[in-house]
Write a structure and sequence with these properties.
Two copies of one chain form a homodimer. The first copy, chain A, starts with 26 loop residues before the first helix and ends with a strand. By secondary structure, chain A is mainly α. Helices cover 61% and strands 1% of the residues of chain A. Chains A and B meet through helix 8, helix 9, helix 10 and strand 1 of A and helix 8, helix 9, helix 10 and strand 1 of B. Strand 1 of chain A pairs antiparallel with strand 1 of chain B. Chain A binds a DNA duplex through helix 2 and helix 3.
Chain lengths: 217, 217
DNA sequence: TGTACATCAGTGAACGCGCGTTCACTGATGTAC
DNA sequence: TGTACATCAGTGAACGCGCGTTCACTGATGTAC
């Protein structure tokens, strides 16, 4: 019996598939999911309209129907990131015992960044985003609100107190943002290697948070 | 008397200038200077071999003689940034009275970032740089040494103390790096606008540094 | 239940663009003798 | 002081690439009657 010659594994014919439905059904979410996959695999530079469309199995002009342009797609993806970050911060706040909320929130912030480095990097690249997009504005506001909830509970504070509260908030934010950025860039690798037990970035964060006291208000 | 028709201001004929010497003389530095100019004017995305060469009035293949490729040029530029940052940190340390050195260094770090936002951004984009370049390695090491000089004076510390010192160093670094990044992204703008006197990012940094105490060793 | 029609979502081809890299070349410089 | 020659630095044209955008189109869906 003659066996059929094994076909060389050729690239998926992709588009003109016979049984493939013309409409995708939920292309918008499929594109966002593929974009996030590309982002975590190859960084912000890997995010192009064509690559995303390719990954979703769709013509590269198709995303325009859902996002307008590339900045739109990136903005909606970043908005999703801010939404998730805000939720993580709020959740950490809610679960932490009184007096430990700042630390809990800081840990949640860094944990989010380390778990989603690509998304975190995109969120920190405003020049690639369109700030006018409602989804992005809303998600940003939501994440900020979570951050600010730590010190926002005193609407009647005097001017001096107000400024001190703002400084505390900015200090915590700066600390955890800086830690996340530096950790993701591998800047602590050398330092950690010299420490006994060679801690990782997550456990070292506890040391770092412990090394800092926010001055009492 | 007939006045000559005013010539439309046409773009500099650029290359085939008659009197122009074939050899530039110091093209390497001219390219670095132009690259930094472009960087501060248009961000990291504006840095292409062709744009830099164009700005320096030279063929776009010329930079290869001095930097090999684009990553080489960016790396040497970033190296210069680290050298200057390291010098600024060391200078601030040297001038500050004992006990105020951490604050002085933090202020110098943020001041550098705010004065050279493009360069600072490039330094924080390791994926665009070539870490194997000796100039970059050296400059990085120099800047780190300045940062570490704050707590590096105790080589015989025990394990617990060592880890605490490392945590303090990382905390200060994270704080000022995060502050610089967030300030440059305009993240404090809304917050500052609500404060009495609407401070700018530089004076607000004093508040932020004042809001934080590094735990005693 | 059927039919006409408007709207929507994805296709596929084409466009022009700027990019980094390669290459043979040539003008300028410096060095050996 | 002059000359031959190797090396260096910049030229200019060409290459292929992937990009975002535009466009007329068509298949699918939903709605009005």
């Amino acid at each position: 019996m003659r066996m059929p010659t094994p076909q060389p594994a050729r690239p998926q014919p992709a588009r003109p598939q016979p049984g493939r439905p013309y409409h995708h059904g939920d292309l918008r979410h499929a594109l966002l999911a593929e974009a996030e996959r590309l982002l975590e695999a190859g960084g912000v530079a890997a995010l192009t309209l064509r690559a995303v469309a390719r990954g979703a199995g769709v013509t590269h002009a198709a995303p325009a129907n859902h996002f307008g342009d590339l900045a739109g797609l990136l903005s909606d993806l970043a908005a999703d990131g801010y939404r998730r970050l805000g939720a993580a911060l709020a959740g950490a706040m809610a679960q932490a015992p009184a007096g430990r909320q700042a630390g809990a929130m800081g840990r949640a912030y860094v944990a989010f960044a380390l778990a989603h480095p690509g998304l975190f990097a995109l969120m920190g690249r405003p020049e690639r985003l369109d700030p006018a997009r409602p989804a992005l504005r809303d998600a940003l506001a939501q994440a900020r609100a979570a951050l600010e909830s730590l010190v926002a509970a005193r609407p009647h504070a005097g001017a001096r107190t107000k400024r001190r509260l703002a400084a505390q908030q900015a200090a915590l934010w700066s600390l955890v943002h800086g830690y996340a950025v530096l950790a993701l860039d591998g800047r602590f690798a050398g330092l950690l290697a010299t420490l006994p037990g060679t801690p990782d970035e997550t456990s070292f964060l506890d040391d770092v948070l412990g090394a800092v006291t926010l001055a009492e208000t």
